[in-house]
TrEMBL record:
Pfam families hit by this protein: DUF6807, GFO_IDH_MocA, GFO_IDH_MocA_C3
Residue ranges of every copy of the Gfo/Idh/MocA-like oxidoreductase N-terminal domain listed in the record: 5-123
Keywords: Oxidoreductase
GO molecular function, one term: nucleotide binding
Gene3D superfamilies, per database record: Dihydrodipicolinate Reductase, domain 2, NAD(P)-binding Rossmann-like Domain
Entries under InterPro entries matching the protein: DUF6807, Gfo/Idh/MocA-like_OxRdtase_N, Gfo/Idh/MocA_oxidrdct_glycsds, GFO_IDH_MocA-like_dom, NAD(P)-bd_dom_sf
Origin species: Streptomyces niveus (Streptomyces spheroides)
Protein name: Uncharacterized protein
Ranges where the GFO/IDH/MocA-like oxidoreductase domain occurs: 134-263
Length: 668
């Protein structure tokens, strides 16, 4: 008997799913019983179907139609909620790629599917190609010798109208929600996923060392020309170079380089070319299993799913690196040129000079754009939006001093990723639990009623409320400094053009040992509003214990199987004992890393610590823990926090020694 199917998102790319469902209806495998769209489909759009139910409410539609499968082809940022809605109704899903818009959302999806016991197939169509298994067998049989690396290349043409077709196109976020609609993560995501599957490295734990070069020629938020390089758990280097600013459309491909030959896979055509030393090249075109057919076979006959969510974990780690990394660098004006569409394009568009050949060279040489000598890549990589902090030439943190963020996040400079000397990332950016947490930043929830923290505002007797009261910290200038490893910045804290505070911020890096370094963060705020003002917090507005505001470090959340980070001072342990204390130093120890926070001067050491380890891991200062902090017109306040960033899980004596060493080095 055919399985009843509901399609959520039947326009745009959803039309291809509608055509496929029509094909499978004719073969008796499925029948379309419902369509979920904001605007109902017309009879012409539903030609060939037997009047399926229509509704904008997926849950209601699933109940009404008793569907067994929901095909979800909606905007990226809606994937998780709609897939979990289907799962809650006991309905299996074919979920369009990318799986979700963030890794925390991916984990939430996995947990929800596990709880419901429903199946889900992710729409990476290329992984249904029979060529994938054929190439894997050739590689395992040693047909091209030892694998040296895998390269992928994609050069497509997309005009300016492509980015105007829907509100989320080319966006990193929309209305405070992650979208991540860049070339690597959406239109040419198949190049990434296919390269990972060919290496057998598609699970989250299978990759490491992600490097990104992301650029944009178009006036968008996301990337349109990017290069990715990573290393898999098999020690295979993988490079993916892609663009939507090509001179002409070309078939994307993945090439497996071996010591005795190579295999090239044009994954949209299911075409494979095998070149072996001493033999004539041979080409084969393979068949393909449709992903919806495979899902039906899984439900009816127990067939193995071709693309279950956990087999997209490695791809999702890459998407997360894109999501939490610096905004794509705008390409210099002389790196691209405009075309009016008369050359065969579909409309006015931007073309990056030489990029067609460059992506091919990247796949051939397993090299990044910058390594291949692309002048524009080197120049754009030094965009004024991000400054890389280094120790002995080694990057330890990215300081994004001109972020592109939604107003609801209270845009402000931040440090992320911050790394240990061993390479572990010890910050988190825009996590699902608190999207306004931005790595390491100076964040204050209430400056004369203006929210410089992000998210909702705590209102007495009402609780957290979404208000239009967010401020912006804007970079105004870099000041010259003679101190190596030191950067001093001037910022303006404004709300709708009115400046409340000016800030002078100095960030220094200090080497401590082979396993530890220190981030020295000093902020001096001056009231330039022309009137007296005061600084508050949720605690001063009626929420006990929530006196946060000032320096704040959002640490990474451990996996579900890992214990929460340990927090301690010289005399106390645990969140309850440490939160609100005025200890000279405080340590937060996670899986393979430890952060030790210390006040850099007497004034800072008088501020209580704000600590969380249960709901999320984070440490900050409390400028207004119990009562508002007044700041007269023209008056200023200064705070300095020195943070040790160490590899390994330190005990109390080791943390105390490093805290003392950091203060000593910072004072010298």
């Amino acid at each position: 008997m055919s399985l009843p199917v509901v399609l959520a998102g039947a326009r745009g790319h959803g039309r291809s799913h509608l055509r496929n469902i029509r094909r499978l209806e004719q073969s008796g495998l499925v029948r379309l019983v419902g369509v979920c769209e904001l605007d109902p489909l017309s009879p012409a759009e539903l030609e060939g179907f037997d009047a399926p139910e229509q509704s904008a409410d997926l849950g209601e539609l699933l109940d009404r139609t008793a569907a067994r499968i929901a095909v979800v082809c909606t905007p990226i940022h809606t994937h998780t909620d709609l897939a979990l809605t289907a799962a809650a109704h006991g309905v299996h899903t074919l979920l369009e790629k990318p799986t979700t818009a963030s890794y925390p959302e991916f984990e939430r999806l996995l947990a929800g599917l596990d709880k419901s016991g429903t199946a889900s197939q992710i729409g990476f169509q290329s992984l249904g190609s029979h060529a994938v298994d054929a190439i894997r067998e050739l590689v395992l049989d040693g047909a091209i010798g030892r694998v040296r690396g895998i390269g992928a290349a994609g050069a497509w043409v997309r005009d300016e109208a492509y980015y105007r077709r829907v509100p989320w196109a080319g966006r990193r976020s929309l209305d405070g929600r992650d979208v991540v609609d860049g070339v690597l993560t959406n239109p040419l995501a198949h190049a990434v996923a296919t390269a990972l599957r060919l290496d057998g490295s598609d699970r989250a734990e299978d990759i490491s060392g992600i490097e990104l070069e992301q650029f944009r020629a178009n006036d968008i938020e996301a990337d349109d020309t990017s290069c990715l390089r990573l290393r898999t758990a098999r020690s295979t280097p993988v490079t993916v170079a892609v663009t939507l600013c090509a001179e002409r459309n070309a078939e994307p491909y993945v090439v497996v380089h071996g010591t005795e030959g190579r295999i090239t896979f044009w994954y949209k055509q299911d075409r494979v070319r095998v070149e072996r030393t001493g033999r004539e090249p041979a080409e084969t075109v393979y068949g393909r299993t449709d992903l919806l057919e495979n899902l039906v076979a899984h439900l009816d006959q127990g067939a193995e799913l071709l693309v279950p969510p956990h087999r997209t974990g490695a791809f999702m780690r890459i998407l997360e690196a894109v999501r939490t990394g610096p905004s794509p660098a705008p390409l210099p004006a002389d790196a691209w040129y405009g075309a009016d569409g008369s050359d065969g394009g579909t409309g006015p568009r931007r073309i990056v000079k030489g990029v067609d050949a460059l992506v091919a060279r990247s796949a051939e040489n397993l090299a990044t754009f910058a390594e291949l000598g692309a002048d524009w890549a080197a120049r754009a990589a030094t965009s004024p939006e991000t400054t890389v902090l280094r120790l002995a030439g080694r990057p330890v943190a990215d300081y994004v001093h001109r972020p592109r963020l939604p107003a609801t996040l209270s845009p402000r400079p931040y440090l992320h990723p911050v790394r240990t000397l061993g390479g572990l990332v010890v910050t988190e950016l825009r996590p699902a639990d608190h999207a306004h947490h931005l790595g390491v930043s100076m964040a204050v929830p209430d400056v004369a009623g203006v929210n410089f923290w992000g998210g909702r505002t705590y209102v007495r007797d009402r609780g957290p409320v979404a208000l239009d009261n967010h401020g912006v910290q804007e970079h105004t200038d870099w000041l010259e400094t003679d101190t190596p490893g030191s950067r001093t910045q001037e910022l303006s804290w404004t709300r709708e053009g009115r400046e409340l505070l000016s800030e002078r911020r100095t960030i220094r890096t200090h080497a401590l040992s082979a396993d530890a370094w220190a981030l020295d963060f000093t902020s001096t705020l001056t009231n330039v509003s022309g009137a007296d003002l005061s600084i508050g917090s949720p605690a001063t507005n009626g929420r006990p214990g929530a006196g946060y505001g000032g320096f704040f470090w959002r640490a990474p959340k451990e996996g579900a199987a890992d214990p929460r980070p340990e927090v301690f001072t010289a005399t106390a342990s645990g969140e309850d004992a440490v939160h609100g204390s005025t200890a000279e130093w405080l340590a937060l120890a996670g899986q393979g890393w430890t952060l030790v926070f210390a006040g850099g001067d007497e004034e800072t050491r008088r501020d209580p610590w704000f600590v969380r380890t249960g709901q999320y891991p984070g440490v900050g200062s409390s400028l207004a823990r119990e009562r508002r902090l007044p700041l007269a017109a023209g008056a200023g306040l200064s705070r300095r926090i020195v943070t040790v960033v160490a590899d390994g899980r330190l005990d109390r004596p080791a943390a105390a020694a490093l805290a003392a060493r950091a203060r000593e080095v910072a004072a010298s």
